[in-house]
Write a structure and sequence with these properties.
By secondary structure, the chain is mainly alpha-helical. It has helices spanning about 1-25, 45-70, 75-80, 80-85, 90-265, 270-280, 285-295, 315-320, 320-325, 325-330, 345-380. The chain has two domains: about 1-70 and about 100-150, no CATH class; about 220-380, no CATH class.
Length: about 375
Amino acid sequence: MAGTELRQTAAVRLARTFSSSSFGSDSSKSPILPVCARHQPQKQSRTCAVLMIGSVLLLTMLGVHHVFSPHLSVSDDSTTTVGSMEMPTVSVVQTDAAQRRRMQAGRDEREQELDDRQRQKVAIANEERQKTADAAQHAADQRTAAARSVSEARNRAAKEAADRLEEARKRHQEDGMRLDDDRKRQEEVRKEQEKDRERKQEEERLADEKVLGQKRAELERQAELARREEQLDARRRSREEEMERETRMQMHTRRLLPQRKQEQGGMPTATRAAATAAAATPTGLRKEKDLISAGNTKLAPRKLPCLDARRLCAGWARLGECTNNKGYMHRECRLSCGLCLPEEDEAAGAEEKDKRDGEEVSEDGDEDEDEEAEGTKTSE
């Protein structure tokens, strides 16, 4: 019975030792074998298996020791008497003391072995804990180094980005300054070109104005020449018309000349000869008119009859001679020009007609002289 109690006590102590060494300060709060409890984490399964194996080995060793250790025989105890039991012998006492010493030595050895194993386990656990701590520290150091490297990389990237931005800003500023300089130069060049263009335009305008002035002067000169030519043409036409009219009047005068000669029977012979000779020359008509006018001045003036002195007065009036040749038509064609009513004194009208012919010849001669003088001045 004592050996069984000792074995149970040793097993309990060993279990408590393993429990305290495995769980540290938490052994007071956990059961005797907490690793064998239900619902433990999976990471403690290995420790539980080790403890169970150790307990089995310890129990096996205790059993083997009990089997091979000496103990009292049951037959001897059963054959002893009450007297012998009351008075044990010295050999039995010595045997019990030796057995207790052996048991104590065994317990000491087992305790020493358990202590050694406990120390080994503690050392292993401490080593593993140290390794875990070292690994954790190493991981923390690696994380710190990684964070430091990341921070340094970020700072370096930020610095590089800031440097790039600063460089880009400086380059942009330089480009802006260069663009401003280019823009200023272009503006100066544009202003110079604008001034040159304005100067050229002003020169061209002055040249054009000069050319236009010359052309205008030339056109005015040509217009003046054309106007003078038109005036000369008009005067030439007027002279031709006057010559035609003079020729026509000359024909009328020649036709009336015999009658005048008969009427002027008392005219001097020299005067009639001069008038006849003057009729053959271009200026003879004028001289003849002068002579006839001089002869007619001696006749007594009479009232002009309201008759047409010429047969062509009606045609001349239709042609507008009453307006173009008022002096002649108003004297010779009073009836056709509508100046008065007709009268019955045809004989007096015939005499007055001859008188007016002479006066008309003298007036036409004066007008021809004035026109020739004006034509001479114009040609000069």
